[in-house]
Design goal:
This protein is mainly alpha-helical. Helix content is 60%, strand content 7%. It has a three-stranded antiparallel β-sheet. It is elongated and about 70 Å long.
Amino acid sequence: MLSKSAEIILKHLYKKEVNFEASSNKENETAMLSMDEIKSLLPDSSHIHVNQTLTYLLSEKYIFNRLINYPYKLYDKDFSLNKFVIGDKGISYLKNKKYKLAAQILPIVFSVVGIAISIIALLN
């Protein structure tokens, strides 16, 4: 599971990607987010926290950088050149998040119900 900050970034990038695919004016629409736009999404987070979150998402290939030489790294010489796009792994994470959560919760629920039934059966 990713942090809330990472999920906010992924959701916003996914929204931009969907808007770009649905747009009839592809020359004026973009699926990329700049560093400044991402930092404005997380106003309460420090710059180092945003940078580390982006570094993690890049290294795990949830997102990628538009720069050819730095597809999964931050270009730290000039941060204004970094523009990020969601990758297939990021899209599949957002789509399968509910199923992963259900897969973690359902076994616990079944165990608790089983224990409750066992205790009731022992008391009778």
